[in-house]
Amino acid sequence: MAVRSAEQLSARERLLAAANELFYEEGVNTVGIDRVIERAGVAKATLYSAFGSKDELIRAYLEQRYQARRERTMRAVEKFETPRERLMAVFDTLSESLSQPNYHGCAFVNASAEARPGSPIERAVDGYRGWLRGLLTQLAREAGAADPERLAWQLHLLYDGASVSARMDHDPGAAFPARLAAEALISAALD
Amino acid sequence: MAVRSAEQLSARERLLAAANELFYEEGVNTVGIDRVIERAGVAKATLYSAFGSKDELIRAYLEQRYQARRERTMRAVEKFETPRERLMAVFDTLSESLSQPNYHGCAFVNASAEARPGSPIERAVDGYRGWLRGLLTQLAREAGAADPERLAWQLHLLYDGASVSARMDHDPGAAFPARLAAEALISAALD
DNA sequence: TCGAGACTAGACAGACCGGTCTGGTATAGT
DNA sequence: ACTATACCAGACCGGTCTGTCTAGTCTCGA
Q1: How far is it, in rounded angstroms, from Cα A171 to Cα A163?
Q2: Does A53 contact strand C, using a CB cutoff of 7 Å?
Q3: Is the distance from CB of A190 to CB of A142 less than 8 angstroms?
Q4: Is any atom of nucleic acid chain C found less than 7 Å from the CB of residue A54?
Q5: Cβ-proximal residues to A178 (8 Å cutoff; 6+ apart), any chain
Q6: How far is CA B6 from the centre of its chain?
Q7: What pTM value is reported for the model?
Q8: What is the pLDDT of residue A4?
Q9: Virtual torsion, Cα A59, A63, A65, A69, nearest 10 deg
Q10: Does B180 have pLDDT greater than 90?
Q11: How far apart are CA A190 and CA A147, in angstroms?
Q12: Dihedral angle of Cα A135, A137, A143, A146, to the nearest 10 degrees
């Protein structure tokens, strides 16, 4: 891929950027193709030659968010040495996300709310959730939890719950009680 | 309202029943008016004279689910005496819900995923969440929690997280780790 | 017996949906 | 100079969306 300046993004990149804004803010079902291509400044045929279908565009949009989240989380995790600090770094990254001014909930929860069974959306969701669960499980194991899978599951519940609460209760501070609860559960799981 | 046998439901009742099935299973946005009236065996004009708009039908559908959940939960709570048992009864009711064969996630999370801001959907969501938070806070206070609001918030996170996990991870057992985590958090909050 | 109210069936309007296709332009490699 | 590629603008297709309207049926109370 050629090196481009910020103003010379490829059509595919502009489409993904437009999809990221519109799909996330208003929902993948309520936003039509026409609005995406208008925001991207791209012809409809270009979208279909690049992605093939709206479903695949949605999948690419989710995949992009998954990779971005993974990189941000891993960067935060790698700043610390002890497993316990690394676990808390996951929640710190979450806290930053929930505090962003345009936070509209977990993109994966939202997208899968009305996804048809077997849709490409579900594959992207499974990838994201599998990665996060795996990370939490590994860190829980390294921390010495008696039952790492169970602790990881519990931390995942808190993670999801904070995302839901931040959106539905209009309170970006939901990561704070989640973090405190995570600490309590980690402590309890080390006996 | 007249007493009716099961086969003589009013048009309004049949519409609500059809909406409950279709909206919950497939999503409020992907299911159109035509499918609702077809399932209800009702004319379109009847729907609009009874509810005025699709948005109001959705609101009524959510209100119905809210009332049903409240009654089921309160019935379970009232079976116990101690605040701690009563808190756990909330999670036991949740566990039953998640284990139902046609569970498709929290109806309120799903409906609000693509709701337009200011839509009637948001009012129904606020009512439901306010009730649940209030119940958890009251029980946490009766249990003697040092910070009842915080404990209630944490339990609410677990409650939401279990709903999300049960759907997204295809695992109806998500209420089990949630219940264990709730017990640990309650114990830790009583110091 | 008559008339009000609740209901049904279905045409219709106007907008929007995802997706295909035509036609034309700009650029880069050979 | 020729060609392949990438892209744009926009007409167009068949279908679906919410919501309105007409017209007719059924029931029940006065």
Answers
A1: 10
A2: yes
A3: no
A4: yes
A5: A91, A94, A158, A159, A161, A162, B154, B157
A6: 24
A7: 0.93
A8: 39
A9: 150
A10: yes
A11: 9
A12: 180
**Residue A112 CA: distances (Å) to CA of A129, B27, B67, B179:** 12, 10, 25, 25
Residues of A in contact with B181 (CB under 8 A): 154, 157-158, 181, 185
Amino acid type, A178: A
> Going by C-beta distance under 8 Å and a sequence separation of 6 or more, which residues neighbour residue B54?
B33
Indicate the pLDDT class of residue A8, thresholds 50, 70 and 90: low
C-alpha distances out from residue A167 to A41, A147, A172, B109, B117, Å: 30, 31, 8, 10, 12
Distance CA A114, CA B29 (A): 8
- At residue B150, does pLDDT exceed 50? yes
Interface test with A, best of B62, B110, B154, B163 (most A CBs within 10 A): B154
Lowest-confidence segment of A40-44, A92-96, A115-119, B126-130 by average pLDDT: A115-119
Closest CA to A136 of A160, A122, A110, A155: A155
Backbone angles phi, psi at B88, to 5 degrees: -65, -30
Taking the Cβ of residue B167 and every Cβ of chain A, the question of whether any pair is shorter than 8 Å is answered with yes
Q: Hunting for tokens 């690049």 — which residue is that?
A: A50
**Is A10 within 8 Å of A45 (Cβ atoms)?**
no
Average pLDDT estimate for B5-15: 72
**A62 and A125 in contact (C-beta within 8 Å)?**
yes
Which residues of B fall within a CB distance of 8 Å from A174?
153, 157
Q: Is A24 on the interface with B (CB under 8 A)?
A: no
Q: Which nucleotide is closest to B52, CA to C1'?
A: D19
Query: In which residue are the tokens 């099961």 written?
Result: B6
Which tokens is B164 given?
């999300």
Q: How far is CA B61 from CA B86, B90, B108, in A?
A: 28, 22, 10
| Sign of the dihedral through C-alpha B152, B158, B159, B164 | positive
Per-residue model confidence as pLDDT tens digits over A61-96: 999 999 999 999 999 999 999 999 999 999 999 999
pLDDT in tens, B30-71: 999 999 999 999 999 999 999 999 999 999 999 999 999 999
